[in-house]
Amino acid sequence: MTVSGVDVTLPIVRELPAPGGYLCGLTFDGEFFWHSDQEAGEIYALAPDTGTVVRTLSCPRVRADLTVGGGVLCQVGGRPKRILLVDPVTGDVLGEKRVLPPSGRLCGVETSGVMMWLGLRGPAVVQLRDVATMTVRREFAVPGTPSGLTVAGDVVVYAEFEGAVLRAVDGRDGTLLAEAVVDGRPVGVTWDGAMIWYADFVGRRLAAVRLSDLLSARPTGRG
Hints:
By secondary structure, the chain is mainly β. The chain is 2% helix and 52% strand.
């Protein structure tokens, strides 16, 4: 599948191997990349310079993206999907946060610890929720079908697996800022303070592109 009207392909500037075969979530906590694999039912802490696995946590309920907030890993998992609060040292599930109404729509997640961004499908929306209550504070419709999601300042970046696209929207009002094709099939997405990384499902790797390259790819419309 290709996306009509998206003509720019972003160059990959770094890549790291992924340990598993069914790539899902990706986040960065300032020390490690955290990456989850649904088929293996595991979450990995990866060294950011080499991709070496430095810790493996069992998490059989992995289903999509993950993030870090409040000292725990926040993993999308279960049926229906919810946020699993996972101890990053032991792998114990310390609690859950329901995402109402219950469904399988939830795919992308990013949090600052107080607020949480979510990407949902069918219909495709990006939401900002209060972490304590999980009530929706902001919501806007977005093009495509979000998989992973991350935030860089006021910019929300989300991946579309089917179209192999990264999109950037304004987190204040949902305005589409940029969209570009990437190599592979992106699922989980994270921002390391310098680059946007995505988990490439078919390439079994983590790949990085420059945020500035993405933001220069202004949307031209779709036919």
